[in-house]
Protein backbone atom coordinates (compact mmCIF):
# COMPACT_ATOMS: atom_id res chain seq x y z
CA UNK A 1 0.00 0.00 0.00
CA UNK A 2 1.27 3.33 -0.89
CA UNK A 3 0.81 6.16 1.45
CA UNK A 4 -0.35 9.30 -0.10
CA UNK A 5 0.98 12.31 1.52
CA UNK A 6 -0.90 15.48 1.07
CA UNK A 7 0.82 18.67 1.96
CA UNK A 8 -1.32 21.61 2.64
CA UNK A 9 0.36 24.93 2.45
CA UNK A 10 -1.68 27.66 3.94
CA UNK A 11 -0.51 31.13 3.22
CA UNK A 12 -2.02 33.64 5.48
CA UNK A 13 -2.12 37.30 4.62
CA UNK A 14 -3.02 39.81 7.26
CA UNK A 15 -6.32 41.53 6.73
CA UNK A 16 -6.59 45.05 7.97
CA UNK A 17 -9.89 46.69 8.66
CA UNK A 18 -10.16 50.40 9.11
CA UNK A 19 -13.07 52.13 10.70
CA UNK A 20 -14.49 54.57 8.26
CA UNK A 21 -15.57 57.73 9.92
CA UNK A 22 -16.54 60.84 8.15
CA UNK A 23 -14.44 63.58 9.60
CA UNK A 24 -15.34 67.19 9.29
CA UNK A 25 -12.76 68.94 7.15
CA UNK A 26 -10.64 71.38 9.08
CA UNK A 27 -11.84 74.95 8.85
CA UNK A 28 -9.15 77.39 7.80
CA UNK A 29 -8.46 80.16 10.31
CA UNK A 30 -9.55 82.71 7.73
CA UNK A 31 -12.99 81.13 7.62
CA UNK A 32 -13.40 80.76 11.37
CA UNK A 33 -15.73 83.74 11.60
CA UNK A 34 -17.57 85.17 14.60
CA UNK A 35 -21.35 84.78 14.69
CA UNK A 36 -21.88 88.51 14.22
CA UNK A 37 -19.69 88.69 11.07
CA UNK A 38 -21.06 90.94 8.34
CA UNK A 39 -19.98 90.54 4.74
CA UNK A 40 -18.04 93.55 3.39
CA UNK A 41 -20.22 93.70 0.25
CA UNK A 42 -23.52 92.26 -0.86
CA UNK A 43 -22.99 90.79 -4.31
CA UNK A 44 -25.56 88.15 -5.19
CA UNK A 45 -24.06 87.58 -8.67
CA UNK A 46 -20.69 86.69 -7.14
CA UNK A 47 -22.29 84.41 -4.54
CA UNK A 48 -24.31 82.63 -7.22
CA UNK A 49 -21.20 82.14 -9.39
CA UNK A 50 -19.12 80.80 -6.46
CA UNK A 51 -21.95 78.46 -5.41
CA UNK A 52 -22.29 76.99 -8.90
CA UNK A 53 -18.50 76.76 -9.33
CA UNK A 54 -18.16 74.76 -6.10
CA UNK A 55 -21.40 72.78 -6.21
CA UNK A 56 -22.93 74.28 -3.07
CA UNK A 57 -25.92 76.44 -2.24
CA UNK A 58 -25.66 80.22 -2.19
CA UNK A 59 -26.32 80.33 1.56
CA UNK A 60 -23.09 78.32 2.11
CA UNK A 61 -20.97 81.05 0.47
CA UNK A 62 -19.67 83.85 2.69
CA UNK A 63 -17.73 86.74 1.18
CA UNK A 64 -15.02 87.66 3.69
CA UNK A 65 -12.86 90.10 1.71
CA UNK A 66 -13.50 92.44 -1.21
CA UNK A 67 -11.20 94.80 -3.09
CA UNK A 68 -13.12 96.65 -5.75
CA UNK A 69 -11.47 98.60 -8.52
CA UNK A 70 -12.74 100.28 -11.64
CA UNK A 71 -14.15 97.35 -13.63
CA UNK A 72 -12.19 94.80 -11.62
CA UNK A 73 -11.92 93.32 -8.17
CA UNK A 74 -10.48 90.56 -6.04
CA UNK A 75 -12.71 88.70 -3.61
CA UNK A 76 -12.20 85.98 -1.03
CA UNK A 77 -15.12 83.73 -0.22
CA UNK A 78 -15.43 80.93 2.31
CA UNK A 79 -16.95 77.74 0.95
CA UNK A 80 -17.31 74.79 3.32
CA UNK A 81 -14.73 76.30 5.66
CA UNK A 82 -12.09 76.90 2.97
CA UNK A 83 -11.12 80.31 1.54
CA UNK A 84 -11.21 80.61 -2.24
CA UNK A 85 -10.13 83.70 -4.18
CA UNK A 86 -12.02 85.03 -7.16
CA UNK A 87 -11.35 87.93 -9.44
CA UNK A 88 -13.61 90.08 -11.54
CA UNK A 89 -12.63 91.43 -14.93
CA UNK A 90 -15.30 93.66 -16.38
CA UNK A 91 -18.50 91.74 -15.75
CA UNK A 92 -16.91 88.28 -15.57
CA UNK A 93 -15.95 86.40 -12.40
CA UNK A 94 -13.32 83.66 -12.38
CA UNK A 95 -11.31 81.75 -9.84
CA UNK A 96 -8.09 83.60 -9.09
CA UNK A 97 -5.16 82.04 -10.93
CA UNK A 98 -7.21 80.59 -13.79
CA UNK A 99 -6.18 81.87 -17.18
CA UNK A 100 -9.18 81.90 -19.53
CA UNK A 101 -6.91 82.41 -22.55
CA UNK A 102 -4.74 79.36 -21.87
CA UNK A 103 -5.41 76.56 -24.37
CA UNK A 104 -5.43 72.97 -23.19
In words, what does this structure look like?
By secondary structure, the protein is mainly beta. The chain is built from one helix and four strands. The protein has one helix at 44-54, and strands at 61-69, 72-79, 82-89, 92-95. A four-stranded antiparallel sheet has the order 1-2-3-4. The longest helix has 11 residues, at 44-54.
What's this model, at a glance?
Helix content is 11%, strand content 28%. It has 104 residues and is mainly beta.
Low-confidence stretches: 5-11
* Order of helical and strand elements: HEEEE
Please compute the radius of gyration using only Cα atoms: 27 Å
Strands, total number: 4
Structural class: mainly beta
Please describe the biggest sheet, giving its number of strands, its sense, and whether it closes into a barrel: 4 strands, antiparallel
Q: What average pLDDT do the residues reach? A: 80
Query: What's the tally of helices?
Result: 1
Cα separation of the termini: 77 Å
Helix content: 10-25%
Task: Provide the descriptors you would attach to this structure in a database record.
single chain; 104 residues; mainly beta; four-stranded antiparallel beta sheet; 1 helix; 11% helix; globular
Map the helices and strands.
Elements: H1 44-54, E1 61-69, E2 72-79, E3 82-89, E4 92-95
Antiparallel strand pairs: 1-2, 2-3, 3-4
